[in-house]
Design brief:
about 190 residues, mainly alpha, 3 domains, about 25% helix, rod-shaped, binds calcium ion
Length: about 190
């Protein structure tokens, strides 16, 4: 009881100092949710990410990724890391493009979003050229008629990063490709 009253008293003092007008309009809505700076972001989350509990954080974008803290919180992304899933595309750009900022390979085709963008592939479409072979297993994922030869614009001289030609069934999409030798830690 006593403790509650002290906390309430301290809060109202702070509120009165900060914004006297608003304080009377809103009694103590934030106290129960642990949101001392009334920015709709829980203190716990702000504390965890080293954000101020005194200054309102919702509209701030400390990692400058185009996503303010309110949206970082809603999307469960890291407000201190511009590229939460480390796929080469910033959180804000991912959201804008309809990509998953927390999944490096949004369409789960074996190629990360950033690499797809670099190669001119569609990171939201696991089979960009619609030839029945998903991008990660496709020798030429941007061109449907692979048999027509490699002398086309998509030929980059490098081997397909996910190419192993070991007869894996490309329809397996569970992420545990048996032929995948890059042990990922999923
Ligand atoms: Ca941000
Ligand atoms: Ca990203
Ligand atoms: Ca992908
Ligand atoms: Ca394809």
């Amino acid at each position: 009881m006593t403790k509650t009253r002290i906390v309430a008293g301290a809060l109202s003092v702070v509120a009165a100092l900060a914004l006297p007008a608003a304080a009377s309009a809103k009694p103590h809505p934030a106290r129960d949710r642990g949101d001392r700076n009334h920015d709709s972001l829980p203190d716990r989350w702000e504390k965890r990410h080293g954000l101020s509990l005194r200054v309102k954080q919702a509209r701030r974008d400390p990692d400058r990724d185009g996503l303010d803290n309110a949206h970082e919180y809603a999307r469960k992304t890291d407000p201190r890391r511009p590229d939460t899933d480390r796929d080469g595309i910033k959180d804000g750009a991912e959201v804008k493009q309809g990509l998953d900022p927390r999944r490096a390979d949004t369409d789960r085709d074996g190629i990360d979003d950033g690499d797809e963008a670099k190669q001119g592939l569609d990171p939201r479409n696991p089979d960009t050229d619609d030839d029945g072979v998903r991008d990660g297993d496709d020798d030429d994922p941007a061109v449907a008629d692979d048999e027509a030869g490699d002398d086309d614009l998509a030929d980059d001289g490098a081997d397909d990063p996910a190419d192993d030609d070991s007869g894996d069934d490309w329809s397996y999409d569970s992420g545990d490709d048996p032929g995948d030798d890059s042990s990922d830690d999923e």
